[in-house]
Structure formats: structure tokens, C-alpha cells
Amino acid sequence: MQYKYNNNPVSRQRIGREEALTLFKNSSLLELGKIAGGIRKAKHPGNIVTFIIDRNINYTNVCTSECKFCAFYKKYGVQNEGAYILSKEQIFDKIRETKELFGTQILLQGGLNPDIDIDYYLNLLNDIKEKFDIHIHAFSPPEIAFIADSNGITVKETVNLLKEAGLGSVPGGGAEILIDRVRKKISPNKINSGKWLEVMEEVHLAGLDSSATIMFGTIETDEDIIEHLFKLRSLQDKTGGFKAFIPWSFQSKNTALNPRGVYGHYYLKVLAISRIVLDNFDNIQASWVTQGAKMGQVALSFGANDMGSTMLEENVVKAAGTTNSAVDEKLMVKLIKDAGFIPAQRINNYDIIKFY
Question: Which site in 171, 236, 316, 330 is 20 to 30 Å from 201, CA atoms measured?
Fold first, then answer.
């Protein structure tokens, strides 16, 4: 199939579902990469690749969702060795360490734990903002929906309360595949696709930015992946609140789910078609934490313009057996330079604070 990307934003026509699916299924990896790379260059002509220094803090690993693809959670209501809820001081210690390494953000996420009430979240946010100058990127849509339901309030009210307490932006976790046929099999206790999109719309309407994600490689089809992308594009047309998109493949070790299996070339194809379809997303992130640092470098030529986080701490993907080594600031800069790009440290909203 011949698909020609038009660099002129005035005359450019958006790709449609059927065309996108045909392109994804029938084009070679290099063909897709060439198109996606051209779009990336048009959107980011300065040859700059960004990254952020931050830390993932999982405040609890107890979760009622019990997703089949997750090896991190501990089941609620039973004695589980290793189950925890972090204290404020434990979280503060992690933030102090992040600040010492020039981190500008924490990613705060956890399980759906009925033993945590809304005061825990609000007091924690307030205290973090009082003690630290750091951006709080926290609480994915399933967590926000869970907090709302547990406290008998609306999603809108929940988002506004969290924002008032110090929430700065929302991560795109819990999306997996926004196809309910798939979600019912891999995460039957988690919110459905419509609810995920509803929460994100409320987040954006409250003036908060967010990211969006896709997890592929379980039981979804190519058609499901394309539909997921178009659902995100539609909401972005409406709100403009998504700052970035992050595709990553399912990590299966230690989980209860047998994947269909995908490899590096398929990751790059998903990345490339994401850049082509999501024409209203400025930033697409390379997932080095699941793919490895070298594949992260390759992703920069297949549509990605951001290398994500140095990931000072990461627990969820690690629990699923991924052993990619941490990437510190120095190595991140080297990886980007060696790939032929100009490294730059950014903050959550993608403003650049340092060039290398």
C-alpha cells in the first residue's frame, strides 16, 4: 500500500481507520518507519530528543483488580507476605532521594486498596506540596474511578479534590487495550474502556494534562490496536489534554496470562502506526524500560521523540520479569547522542530545562 505523508498541515488529510489498518497489516517495518520518521521530523524539526528525571513510587501493592497480566499486586483480604501501604515518611524519603538526583517529578501509583480512604490521598498530596518543590504525576484512571466509587462521589468531584490538594497531572495507566472484549478477559475487575475515557475527559476538563498508553501482546488483534488509537485521537480532538503517548508490550513472566507473543519488530510497527494515526499528539515516548535501551534508540527513528524517564525506581514491570538496567542521566544522554539526536532534559509539560 502506498501512503504518502504530506508535511503541509493545511492540505494534509487525516488517515482513516481502514487505511490505517491496511497500512499496519501490509506495510513493511521500514516503510512504516520511513513514514513515522517523516512525521516526527515535521513535528520536531530540531532533532531534539527529550527525557525526564523522575521516580515511580508505588504507594501500595494491594489491589482488588487482580489483572491477569500483573505480577506486582497482592490480593486483598488475605494474608499476603510482602503486601504493604507506604507511610508518608517512606514516600518522603523516596522524594528526597529523587531531588538529590535532580529529579523534577514523581510518578505516584498503586493498587486499588479498599483500606485506603480519600484522606490518605488528599493529605499525602498536601504534605508533599508543602515539603517539596516537585511535580506530582499521579493516579491513573482506574485509581481515580476507584477513589470516587469508594467515597460515593463523582469522578469530577474526585479529580477536583485531588487537583486542589496538589495533583499536577495524570498518567495514562490502566488503558491496556480500550476494547472491552479484551478487557473482560485480561482485567475483568477493572473499569471498562468507556469509563477510562470518561475519567480522562474529566481530568482534561479540570485543566490537568495526562499521558495515554497502550499495552499490546496479550490477546488483542491488529484491529483492536487500531481502534484503541482512534479512540484516543477522538478524545484528544475534544479536549487536547494528552501530552504524550506511550506504547509498550506486555511483559509476561510471573503473570497468570499466556501472551500471543510479540517481538521487537512488532513493537516498532505499533510505535510507527501510533505516530501516523495520532496526528494530534505532539509527543510519543520510547519504552526502553520494556524494550531495552538499544531498542529505545531504534524507536527514535520510528516516530518517538522522547525517551521517557530515567526511572530511578520501577517495580511493576520488574515484577513481570523484565530486567532492563536502570538508565541514569549520563547514560540517557549518551544513548540519545549515539542515536544521532540532541539530548534535552524536560519537565512534565515538555518544556526543556537543560540541553546537553
Answer: 316
Radius of gyration of the chain measured on its C-alpha atoms: 19
Domains and CATH numbers, the chain: 17-355 (3.20.20.70)
Q: Compute the distance between CA of residue 26 and CA of residue 267 in angstroms, rounded to an integer.
A: 15
Nearest to 58 by CA among 49, 46, 48, 70: 70
Task: Assess contact for 273 and 23: CB atoms under 8 A.
Answer: yes
pLDDT tens readout for residues 39-92: 999 999 999 999 999 999 999 888 877 666 676 667 766 667 778 889 999 999
Q: What phi-psi label fits residue 311: left (phi over 0), alpha (psi between -120 and 50 degrees) or beta?
A: left
* pTM as predicted: 0.91
- What gap in Å lies between CA 259 and CA 320, rounded to an integer? 13
| Contact (Cβ atoms closer than 8 angstroms) between residue 168 and residue 135 | yes
Beta strand 242-249 with 283-284 is: parallel
> Left, alpha or beta for 117 (phi > 0: left; psi -120 to 50: alpha)?
beta
How many CB atoms lie under 10 A from the CB of residue 3?
A: 14
